[in-house]
Structure formats: structure tokens, C-alpha cells
């Protein structure tokens, strides 16, 4: 495909701006199915701006693009078919963004494209290892809204899309605005299909349970698999811990690209002008054809012991095999710990707990924070607020080592590296909320 030229509009001797219409058309001609332009100062990017500018300080405008995925492969219970579609479309996104950057650069316009998915900045795992969050950029650029399943739903293509972003060091003549409605139907089919119960009917999202199962062959799950090999006495002992088909699946992910275990929330979503027809015409038929095969599929579901997902799978999908694995979202810093507990909080495990915790971290990281757990909700605040039911003072390195199971709590208490004031039962109850 030969893309059209993209001239830069010279406003005067000192100012130039990119023609937003031509930029968008160029993206479409390069292979994108939709595109929008947003400025770096857009209020919708308030919580993303600092990270974007840290990655690419020249950024003045952002071009967000959409590439459609084929729906039938994503919906099929055979996940090899679905993953082929994910990877192939992801490569298309990267190719489109790279072609745009190449042309912009040839015309003296500074620009850079970040990866659609992988590779990422792996030295920053388990914290934010991606350089640009494509979803909020796409929402700001008018390419859709976030559904309760935490995927962007395009008004036409639904959630059967992958996203890319090009950061541009010039201003544009105009910018897109977010669409004024959410295509999400609140049909809750994503709730019904999720094998680990990560999506709640009230819109809450359990990142830890989703990550543990769906991303089993990525990052942390792969690391856990390697540690199981290291911990095994011999091949026979390893086979007691890891089924041969799991090892084959890991090999396949290493050789051909990591495989998602589910992504059923995408599969069953009926939103979008091009997608909604069959659902509206025959809802019962849609459920029978699209949703039930995923629900009834016999498969292994990976969960952390005593997590909400552990309870959910056994209750909701007794025909699916549950495999207990170790949690891998372990923080490397105290800020990472405080951010992480907001992502890994298990509402069901917190039932009956209503307490205020004051944390004081010392040593390499000096941080004070308040954690409030009340009526199955969690709130984290800087500093110490209110009256604490339990106060904990801990050397930061010791606490992080304890979370990683590299240091024992009893020894830390005896050496006063960790000190608590209040009932120890409250510390135990706190830990129960984060089995990951």
C-alpha cells in the first residue's frame, strides 16, 4: 500500500503545525482502521502526562490508531487460534506506527512509536513496565470508551481492536475529543464468561486474579515455572508439580509468542455497530453459540491459593481444573507495595474486616501511609490519617524481603526490624486480603 504524502503546514516563520486531517488520513492509508489526534495537555491524559514526557520529552501531540481483529478467531475456544489473531494484529499495529514515524521523520518531524504490547521495559517489572498506556490515549482521542472489562470499546468495531500510539514533537491544527457516550451495554456477559471472576457485576476489577491466570505464560508466571524447576529434586519430582502439557505450552510461548489463557471478556462482548447485530437479533442464540462454549470448556485455571478466584472457580465452574500457583506480583519498592495492594486487594477475603492501618517505613525508603479496609473496600493515603487500629514500623528492605518470602516475619519481629502496636490478628487479617 502506498500512503499519501503528509505535508507540514507552515503557519509563519516561527510556527508550524501538522494538518490533523491529513495525519489521520495518512494513518488510514498506512493500514490503520481508525485514528485520532490528542494534545499532550489534554485533561484526559492528566495521570499519564508525566510518564509520556519522561519517555519522550518532545511530545506535543499523540496519534492513536486502531487496528481491527477478526472476531471469529477471538471467540473460538481453541486459544491457539485466538492467540494467532492477537499476535498477527499486534504486528500490524507496530508496522503501521513504524511507517508513520518513518514518514514523519523524513519530513523533519520528530516522532516515536512505543510497542503495541511486548517487548517492554522488563527492568521495571513488577511496576509499570510499559512506556505508553495506549487505552487512555485512545479514549482521549475519541476512539472509544472503557468497558467494565477494562478494554476499550470502539463505537463501530467493538472491543475487537488493538491499539497503538505515535508520539509527535509538533502541534496539530486540531484535536479529537472523547466520544460522548459509552458503547458498553452493561450486558455483563464478560462477567459471566470470565473463568476467574475478575470482573464484578458492580464494575470492580480483580487485576491479580486476571493476571495470574490469563498471563500465566508471561513474566511472573514464567518465573514461577522456572522456580518450580529449580525447586524440584529430579524430573519425576517436577512432573508432580508441573504437568507435561504445561511445559509444552511454556515452550510454545517461548518459541512463537506468549499465549493468553482466556481473554474471554473480549470474546463475548457484543458492543459496537458492526458487532451488535447477532446479539440484538437472537440473544439466546448468541449465548449458546458464543458464551456457553467458553464457559463449558474443560481447562486448567491458575489461581493463588485462598484467593477470591480460588473460591470462584470451584463454585462457578466445578468442571474446570484448579491449579494453585504462587503469586508473582511482588513489589520492589515501598511505593510499589502501596500501589500494588490497590491492584491485588481481594474483596472476598476481606469480609468482616474493618480496620485502619498506619505504616511507617524506615531505612532506605522513608514513607508513611494509611491503609483503610472497610466493608470490602480499600483506600490508601499518604501520611497517617485518623486513629489506627494497628501501627506497624518496618525497615523497608526487611518488609519487601518478607513479602518476597526471602525473610521470616518471626525473626524480623525478634530483631525489631518490624514492630507492631495493636493486635497481631489484624496483621494476619491484612495479609489474608493479599494472598498474592
Automatic annotation (TrEMBL):
Gene Ontology molecular function terms on file: iron-sulfur cluster binding; metal ion binding
Domain 4Fe-4S ferredoxin-type residue range list: 175-204
InterPro entries on file: 4Fe4S_Fe-S-bd, 4Fe4S_Fe_S_CS, SCP2_sterol-bd_dom, SCP2_sterol-bd_dom_sf
Xref: SUPFAM superfamilies: alpha-helical ferredoxin, SCP-like
Pfam families recorded: Fer4 (PF00037), SCP2 (PF02036)
Keywords tagged on the record: Iron, Iron-sulfur, Metal-binding
PROSITE patterns linked to this entry: 4FE4S_FER_1, 4FE4S_FER_2
Name of the protein this chain belongs to: SCP2 sterol-binding domain-containing protein
Protein source organism: Telmatocola sphagniphila
Amino acid at each position: 500500500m502506498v500512503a499519501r504524502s503528509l505535508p507540514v503546514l507552515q503557519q509563519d516563520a516561527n510556527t508550524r503545525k501538522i494538518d490533523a486531517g491529513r495525519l489521520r488520513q495518512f494513518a488510514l492509508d498506512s493500514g490503520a482502521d481508525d485514528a485520532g489526534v490528542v494534545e499532550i495537555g489534554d485533561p484526559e491524559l492528566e495521570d499519564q502526562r508525566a510518564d509520556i514526557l519522561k519517555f519522550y520529552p518532545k511530545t506535543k501531540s499523540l496519534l492513536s490508531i486502531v487496528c481491527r481483529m477478526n472476531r471469529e478467531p477471538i471467540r473460538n475456544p481453541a486459544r491457539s487460534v485466538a492467540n494467532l489473531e492477537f499476535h498477527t494484529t499486534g504486528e500490524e499495529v507496530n508496522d503501521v506506527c513504524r511507517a508513520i514515524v518513518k514518514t514523519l521523520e523524513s519530513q523533519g518531524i520528530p516522532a516515536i512509536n512505543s510497542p503495541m504490547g511486548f517487548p517492554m521495559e522488563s527492568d521495571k517489572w513488577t511496576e509499570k513496565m510499559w512506556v505508553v498506556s495506549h487505552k487512555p490515549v485512545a479514549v482521549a482521542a475519541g476512539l472509544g470508551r472503557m468497558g467494565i472489562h477494562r478494554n476499550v470499546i470502539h463505537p463501530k468495531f467493538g472491543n475487537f481492536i488493538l491499539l497503538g500510539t505515535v508520539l509527535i514533537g509538533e502541534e496539530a491544527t486540531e484535536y479529537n475529543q472523547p466520544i460522548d457516550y459509552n458503547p458498553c451495554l452493561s450486558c455483563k456477559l464478560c462477567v459471566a464468561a470470565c473463568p476467574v471472576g475478575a470482573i464484578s457485576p458492580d464494575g470492580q476489577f480483580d487485576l491479580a486474579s486476571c493476571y495470574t491466570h490469563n498471563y500465566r505464560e508471561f513474566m511472573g508466571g514464567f518465573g514461577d515455572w522456572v522456580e518450580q524447576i529449580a525447586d524440584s529434586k529430579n524430573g519425576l519430582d517436577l512432573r508432580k508439580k508441573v504437568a507435561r502439557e504445561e511445559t509444552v505450552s511454556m515452550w510454545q510461548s517461548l518459541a512463537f509468542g506468549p499465549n493468553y489463557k482466556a481473554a474471554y471478556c473480549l470474546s463475548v462482548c457484543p458492543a459496537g455497530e458492526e458487532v451488535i447485530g447477532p446479539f440484538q437479533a437472537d440473544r439466546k442464540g448468541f449465548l449458546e453459540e458464543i458464551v456457553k462454549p467458553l464457559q463449558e470448556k474443560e481447562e486448567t485455571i491458575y489461581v493463588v491459593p485462598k484467593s477470591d478466584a480460588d473460591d470462584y472457580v470451584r463454585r462457578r465452574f466445578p468442571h474446570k481444573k484448579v491449579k494453585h500457583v504462587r503469586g508473582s506480583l511482588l513489589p520492589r519498592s515501598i511505593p510499589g507495595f502501596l500501589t500494588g495492594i490497590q491492584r491485588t486487594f481481594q474483596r472476598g477475603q476481606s469480609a468482616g474486616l474493618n480496620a485502619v492501618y498506619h505504616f511507617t517505613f524506615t531505612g532506605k525508603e522513608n514513607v508513611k501511609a494509611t491503609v483503610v479496609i472497610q466493608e470490602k473496600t480499600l483506600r490508601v493515603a499518604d501520611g497517617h490519617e485518623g486513629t489506627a487500629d494497628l501501627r506497624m514500623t518496618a525497615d523497608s528492605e526487611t518488609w519487601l524481603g518478607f513479602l518476597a518470602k526471602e525473610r521470616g516475619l518471626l525473626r524480623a519481629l525478634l530483631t525489631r526490624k518490624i514492630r507492631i502496636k495493636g493486635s497481631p490478628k489484624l496483621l494476619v487479617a491484612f495479609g489474608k486480603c493479599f494472598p498474592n
